Model the fold of this input.
Amino acid sequence: MYLTNPSGSWAGHYLTVKRSPRWDDPQYAVLGNLPHHSAWWVISVADQPGQLIESNLLTDLNPAARLTDTSWIQGGKVSWNWWVDNVSKTGKSSFSTDVMKEYVDFAADNGLLYFMLDAGWSKSGDITQLNGRVDVPELVRYGATKHVKVWIWLHSEAVLKQMREAFPIYERWGVAGLKIDFINRDDQDGIQFYYDLAKYAAEHHLMIDFHGARTPWGLLRTNPNVMSYEAVLGLENNKVGRRDSPVDRTVFASTRLLAGPMDFTAGAFDNATEDGFIPRNEAPMAMGTRAQQLALYVIYENPIPMLSDSPQNYAGQPGLQFLKEVPIEWDETHVIDSNPGEFTTIVRRHQNEWYLGSMTNWTPRTLAIPLRFLGAGTYTAEAYEDAADADKNPKHLLLSQKSVTSADTLTLHLAPGGGAAIHFAAKK
Done:
């Protein structure tokens, strides 16, 4: 069973419960030959919400990797053209090869491995053909000169019909990965589509990012070319309404995040108070502080995190350095404290360095963070926190450095819709 929005629109604000019928015959849920093995179900129980976040149970129940060569699979940060409506350095929107090269340049200048080319490059109904607006092979060649690889967006219905013809073409072009969108189904054949697509994409050295997708279930363990999923009401909703807020983000940490990597498409640098927020397609903004946007890169696990805003909005801005440096893979995770819908504080280790992400809903908070997770010795804590006036000017950050040890306790002052992002580096 699942929840559905019967309005069929982002504007719908109610849900109904439905059984998952087959796409081709709504009288049946599953067709198969006996003996038939049904899908497994998982119920996780913990004393605290944070223990659920730390668990890898859902992923670990899946079969081991089927690929023997995974050398071509690599996570990395991503620049993106869609959220900001293809804005160029002139300030105007233009979906063209030259403008997309500007996003490749931004990726190269800031150490990002990828550029995500979103919808509009292919002919309508034929994903093997360019439509003349953006030359994908040329963009891939240009990216190679900058050490930036290119992902491309695809509609799931077109992929279902043409992937056997299209994927070999993308491999010849040198495309790194595919963002598969609007799957919008989880019937028996729909789930099989995930498996078939992941397997065939791997045969052509293509990584996958599922958007418009159902909740993940650990497929990435069996098919490690599956990098991430959206399956969440993410940052993109700021273009059309107010359904993404600091309240929702704290809920997602204890709900959607339990299912695996989450492509929330964070990184908004035009930050707004609750009253000052205006939904708009061009030059979108996001509710909450900039410090909270930085914190999301630690709190939300995602091996292909996007820097979703425009190159112009990032240029020379405080906080960009943290986005350039924060890792994409983690060796250890601890939840300091989490209360769904209220606040979340998570620390993650990458090799011998630790990162902390903390966020709150619209309630300002003062949090005491014991640093017992640190190893022996002294660390430099480089902090990006809400400035004293962040409740009125949410773009303002307080940057600081101090020496700390595992015996210390940090005090964080989070503004309404605020957060904090801290990098702990061991002193040599």
Notes: Residues 156-173 form the longest helix (18 residues). Residues 63 and 75 are 21 Å apart (CA to CA). The mean pLDDT is 95. The chain has two domains: 57-329, 334-426.
